[in-house]
Amino acid sequence: MGTDHPVSELPYRHGAEWYALAAAMLFGAAYPFSKLLLSGMGPVTLSAAVYAGAALATGIYYFGTRFVLPGRVSRETPLLQADIPWIAGSILIGCIGATTLLMISLQYTDAASASLLLSFEGVTTTLIAVCIFREHVGIRVGIALFLITTACLLVSYEPGAVLGISLGSAGVLLTTVAWGIETNLNRHLSGRDPVLLNFIRALISTTALFGIAALFSEPIPSLPFLAGALILGIFSFSGIAAIWFFLALRGLGAARTGSIIGTNPVIGIIVSICIFQIIPENLFYPAFLCVILGLVLLFSEQHSHLHIHEDERHEHSHNHLDGHHSHTHNPSDPPVGRNGYHSHLHHHDELVHNHPHRPDIHHRHSHKKEI
């Protein structure tokens, strides 16, 4: 068994949080732009086009860097046959199902309200992560989830609709449930190459969604709207934002990544007000305050205790300065890249130590008893 490590030797770094926040900014800006594009194209066609843009961008980057930057390939882990069920579930539930439902729902919901409702994704993601995948969260997260849930109920309230909830708002909320499921499925893929993974997801989703659009006889959009959707896909959905999302998921786990992604309504609301010049309803302001308070609690969470790393053998991108990768190398292992990372099959001896951490690839341990 390994020896204990003082906390000072293993400080927690917030790199993954910044990836999540950057992804949230791009996701948040995407929703009002999606609503703008819906004025000139069908919802399924728009979904297909944004994934086509993502497939084009990630494909060019992935295959281009294999020749220009071959060292990048050695820093990331390829996909395995065991990943197929997780990829299939992610595509069906998140890329195809959730995206199509969102585009349809945006036709019946104003952009500012839709952006704030999408913060409910952090709630659904966390509940699934805790209840099904046993990911640990503390009381701070519980308070934050209560605040975000309250915000979602306030902004979706509509006295004239059945049960006070509009059809469009219900569709957006169902989208967040689907994305919550997708995020927890993607947690099992977070150690793989995010560029290759998102290229495959986008390519398959594009083919399926264009087929569905043809089945519903949606008209072919004009070139400006199609170009706008392609550009939107490059930056959001399975594009740059999704790559950053997977890098965050690798370091934070599903619950915390989903929670930080909940900051995207802030960007979405600002963009919506600028584009559509909408004056929010009165209930928007207390809802907005609840979201801000909830996200502050989530982002400032601290977690440190003595924990055990079980004896394990796996493959993922890693460096040798994090206190967890002191293994030896074989001649066949790829060299370390300029950023200090590489990927190969390696072994972890059992280790006990104490340091600040998140439920990343190496910290998905049980919290049922103290060590």
Molecular structure report:
This protein has 371 residues and is mainly alpha-helical. The protein has one domain. The protein is 59% helix and 7% strand. The protein has 14 helices and 4 strands. The chain has helices spanning 15-37, 43-68, 70-75, 84-105, 111-117, 120-131, 139-156, 167-187, 194-215, 223-235, 240-252, 254-261, 264-276, 284-299, and strands spanning 304-309, 312-318, 342-348, 351-356. The strands form 2 sheets. It has a two-stranded antiparallel ribbon. Strands 2-3 form a two-stranded antiparallel sheet. Helix 6 (120-131) packs across helix 7 (139-156). The relative contact order is 0.21.
Question: Gap between N and C termini, in Å?
Answer: 14 Å
Q: What number is the mean pLDDT? A: 81
Low-confidence stretches: 1-12
**Count of spatially separate domains:** 1
Overall geometric form = globular
Number of strands: 4
Q: Label the structural class.
A: mainly alpha
Give the fraction of residues assigned to helices. 55-70%
Order of helices and strands: HHHHHHHHHHHHHHEEEE
Number of helices: 14
Strand content: 5-15%
Largest sheet: 2 strands, antiparallel
Write down the Rg.
21 Å
Which sequence of strands runs across the widest sheet? 1-4
